């Protein structure tokens, strides 16, 4: 909950209809990010689908020019 309420995401992306990927820098491990996958049902209901850590290099590769 701390991530959602008190931290600024470094990336937000839509994965499919109503499902979003929110990426935060890991608060304790500088080489990792934390991914939250949420599903927005309607304006009053948001469901957390999954949360997982990933290497920060994964996110940084997405920004490299092709």
Sum up the structure in keywords.
4-stranded antiparallel beta sheet, globular, 4 strands, 66 residues, alpha+beta
What does this structure look like?
The chain has 66 residues and is of the alpha+beta class. It has two helices and four strands. Strands 1-2-3-4 form a four-stranded antiparallel sheet.
Compact overview of the structure:
The protein has 2 helices and 4 strands. With 66 residues, it is an alpha+beta fold.
Main sheet record: 4 strands, antiparallel
Low-confidence stretches: none
Query: What is the average of the pLDDT values?
Result: 88
Termini separation:
35 Å
Structural class: alpha+beta
The total strand number stands at: 4
* Spatial arrangement of strands, main beta sheet: 1-2-3-4
Amount of beta strand: over 45%
Order of helices and strands: HEEEEH
The Rg value, from CA coordinates, equals 13 Å
Number of helices: 2
User: Could you say which overall geometry the principal axes of the C-alpha atoms support?
Assistant: globular
Helix content: 10-25%
């Amino acid at each position: 909950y701390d991530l959602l309420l008190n931290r600024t995401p470094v990336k937000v992306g839509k994965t499919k209809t109503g499902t979003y990927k929110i990426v935060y820098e890991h608060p304790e491990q500088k080489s990792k990010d934390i991914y939250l996958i949420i599903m927005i049902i309607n304006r009053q209901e948001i469901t957390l689908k999954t949360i997982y850590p990933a290497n920060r290099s994964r996110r940084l590769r997405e920004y490299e020019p092709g």
